[in-house]
Amino acid sequence: MFIKVKRGWEIPESLATPEHVFFNRRKFLTTGAAIGAMTILSACDQKQEAQAQAEASAAPDPSASLYPFKRNETYTLDRDITDEQWAATYNNYYEFSSGKRLVDEAQALPIRPWTLTIDGLVAKPMQIGIDDLMKKMPLEERLYRHRCVETWSMAVPWSGFALKELVKLAEPKAEAKYLRLETFMNPEVAGEQKSPFYPWPYIEGLTVEEAMNDLAFMVTGMYGKPAPKQNGAPLRIALPWKYGFKSGKALVKITFTDERPVNFWQALQSSEYGFWANVNPEVPHPRWSQATERMLGNDEPRPTLLYNGYADFVAPLYANLQGEKLFM
Ligand code: MTE
Fold first, then answer.
1. CB neighbour list of residue 161: distance below 8 Å, 6 or more residues apart
2. Residue with the nearest Cα to atom 17 of ligand 1?
3. CA torsion, points 310, 313, 319, 323, in degrees to nearest 10?
């Protein structure tokens, strides 16, 4: 995404790393000898930690044998499926890079163990491992269009489960109006998370009604296999009627809340990126038109469709929200 970055001195509170994160390993006397010992030991600790992270990030995905999932034929495409090579190598994942070619960098993310926390205004708060969660959910494959706010698009066979099944598991309370989705925070493996220009971690949000819509989908895989790390493994969301930045990757927490979440891009540039971000060809981005899109792989230009072609599924969600900026 093209953004005007914040000035260097505007460091968000979340980025001020507490000292104990760095210095909680051992308590040493403050003598010169102890400081020397500390330097050597912490270097050893760091080496061991780096080795453990490298081993964890290279481990095979234990869910691989579950794939492929049965395709749900409700969701059809008006275009060819994008070549997997494109979908898996042209990515947005700012934790790893602001460029598109970030496959190598993303491999550093360890995706097991991986725990999803569900908290906030729910009757059943929980912490659940991704593999246990997959056992509880009805797994399926869906063909979805994906439209980035930058105007590129693709058509992908995602594997996963309907978000509404997860919502039902959590049993939201009546006061819960929104879901706040939070991505991992691990600057040791995601180098860009050390940058003070961005308000990490990556946050996204949607209403409970949107989450209960049939289209809202939690993604664990694509092209009949576990999703590659660069596409958001082990758990991301796909909201195909919204611009792609709403589809947060590598989710670790879902909080049910009565406050509308401020998302990552909105926190950076609220004049250009909003909460709803529904696709609309007639509402330009402040700096470019959204009237057409170009498909990854063949660069084929196509007219952008209202709600990215999913109006039949989602338009009723917005019938009483005319005062809202629904398309940015
Ligand atoms: N999620 C996280 N955590 N970090 C990101 O930078 N980029 C978003 C979205 N999810 C992003 C993210 C944007 S702008 C888009 S278009 C899609 O991921 C891209 O998904 P893809 O790389 O699988 O095509």
1. 134, 137, 138, 139, 140, 217, 218, 220
2. 244
3. -40
The answer to which of 41-50, 124-133, 266-275 has the lowest mean pLDDT is 41-50
CATH (residue range 65-318): 3.90.420.10
Q: What is the 3-state secondary structure (H, E, C) of 156-198?
A: EEEEEEEHHHHHHHHCECCCCCEEEEEECCCCCCCHHHHCCCC
In short, whether 197's Cβ falls inside 6 Å of ligand 1 is no
Instruction: Give the predicted TM-score (pTM) of the model.
Output: 0.87
Residue 263, ligand 1, Cβ within 6 A: no
User: CA 285 to CA 299: how far, in whole Å?
Assistant: 20
CB of 249 within 6 A of ligand 1: the answer is yes
- Kind and range of the H or E run holding 312: helix 311-314
Does residue 42 sit in helix, strand or coil? helix
Find out whether the beta carbon of 93 lies less than 6 Å from any atom of ligand 1. yes
**In the structure encoding, which two tokens stand for residue 71, read together?**
């395709």
**Preceding peptide of 228 cis, ω within 30°:** no
- Rounded to whole angstroms, the Cα distance separating 249 from 184 reads 9
Assess contact for 266 and 273: CB atoms under 8 A.
Answer: yes
The mean pLDDT value of the chain amounts to 89
Best mutation site among 218, 247, 290, 308 for ligand 1, i.e. most ligand atoms within 8 A of its Cβ? 247
Burial call 225-236: b when 16+ CB within 10 Å, e when fewer: bbbbbbbbbbbb
Is the shortest distance between the CB of 95 and ligand 1 below 6 Å?
yes
Q: Map out the domains of the chain as residue ranges.
A: 18-51, 65-318
pLDDT at 26 over 70: no
Those residues whose C-beta lies under 8 Å from the C-beta of residue 243, and which sit 6 or more positions away, are 147, 148, 149, 277, 278, 279
pLDDT digits (tens, 9 = 90+) for 284-325: 999 999 999 999 999 989 999 999 999 999 999 999 998 999
Q: How far apart are CA 225 and CA 233, in angstroms?
A: 11
